[in-house]
Every structure is written in structure tokens, then in C-alpha cells.
Protein: Metalloregulator ArsR/SmtB family transcription factor
Amino acid sequence: MTRLPDLFAALADPTRFAIVERLLAEGEQSAGELADIADITAPAISRHLKVLREAGVVTQRIDGQRRIYAVTPEPLQAISAWAIAHRDFWEGSLDRLEAAIRNRRKESR
Amino acid sequence: MTRLPDLFAALADPTRFAIVERLLAEGEQSAGELADIADITAPAISRHLKVLREAGVVTQRIDGQRRIYAVTPEPLQAISAWAIAHRDFWEGSLDRLEAAIRNRRKESR
DNA sequence: CTGTTAATTAACGCAAATGTTAATTACATG
DNA sequence: CATGTAATTAACATTTGCGTTAATTAACAG
Structure:
């Protein structure tokens, strides 16, 4: 089981976070398709994907000469579990949490 | 509102994560009380607290010559909201895993 | 076999993060 | 007011992270 700080480190970079969001929103994609996620070169993307892979955030599937990436469920589960484990701490504002979720959905359309 | 990658960056360091866990478990504590959280000097702790403060993860309260720190609810809320917003993804992870395996079998024929 | 495409690895430069010791600020107390 | 305690800021060294270009590996197409 990956430790949370390592998971957070993987998601702390804006480019990597964008990759994860994209994969979550649109499903699995090849390294090439992810190229336009940020204004950086292909090797840079490749290294970000490696970091995500080593943190267990994404899995790699080989299809011909393409490497196809998808988000792994476990890390998201782990993060959710951690936040919810401390729910008694921030439970005072469930309304705001709900609002935040609604907001996210709205933005992603 | 703080962006998630910045939040994750604040929590990516093991010492900072330990500070947050401690404050969540035992409630607010002074910088001095947090000194034993890791085998580093007081200035190092102080800088970690500054990072957490600037990311909005903790608040600082002044009491005499002590600075007392406590976790802010909003960041945990935000993280939880993000994870839960993608719950449909990792909730049925077993089904998806199965489907992915079936899919791969189909393709390789 | 040859050339093209997809992606990664190698080698390198630079900026940011993290630790140290020393100096500073602010409050408390005899 | 002089001294001690709590914490931070300053200055500096070292490591890590992230980007680049060039080289490499692997699969595909003629």
C-alpha cells in the first residue's frame, strides 16, 4: 500500500494532476494523446507518466507502439478514505461539501 | 479557494503530513510541542509550519510567546469533495477491472 | 531492409525545496 | 532592566524536481 504523502507528491504537480483529471474524465489515453495537456515536450510528459506509474496512480497498457494509460482506482479510494476518516473534524459543513461537489460537476461540463 | 495541486504539495512532505495527522488526532498544539514530530531542528519545523499556513492547511493563533497551530477544515473538505466527485469511478472498481480484463482478452484475439 | 512513427531513456542545466547554524524578534520573569 | 524561553527569519549548502535536446528502442509500412 502506497503511503499518502507519496500519493500526494504524485498529484502535487499541476501537469500530473491535469493528466489524472483528463484520464478520469475521458477514460484511458495514449501518451501521444496526452501530449497537449501542457506546453511541454514529449519527454517531459513521459517522465510525468513515469512518476504517476511509480506512485501507482496510473497503469500502463501496451498496444502496438502505443502506451495507453488509465487511472488506478486504489489511490483515489485511499485518499477518500483518509479524508472521510477525519470527517468528524470538518463535518460541521456538509452543506458546503455538497455545494463544492455540485460546483465541480458544473465546471466540468 | 486553494487549488488541489497546491494542497497536495503541502501534504506531500512526510513531516508536514505527520504534523497534520498529529493536529487532527490531538487537537491544536504549539510549535514547541510539535518539535518531536521528526528528527529535525526547530527552524525546519517552523518552515514546514509556514508552508502549511501559506497553503491554508493550518491556522496560527498567538498565545503569549507561543504560536499555536490547528488544522483548517476547508482543505480536507476540498480533498474529500474531489475524491467523492470521482466516486463513480473507483466505487465500482471491481466491475471495471473485470471488464478491462475481458476487453483485453477480446482484443488479443 | 529502409524509413517513419511512438515513446522512452540519457545527459545536462537551472530553479525550488529542505536541511543546517547563526542572528533576530517578542514575550515573560526575577 | 537583564536574562531566559519560544519561535521565527537570515544566510548558506545540498538535494530533488522539472524542463530541454539528443540518442535509443520498438513497432509498423512500403
User: Anything to note?
Assistant: Chain B touches chain A at residues 3-6, 8-9, 11-14, 17, 24, 71, 73-74, 76-87, 89-90, 93, 96-97, 100, 104, 107 (CB under 8 Å). The two ends of chain B are 50 Å apart (CA to CA).
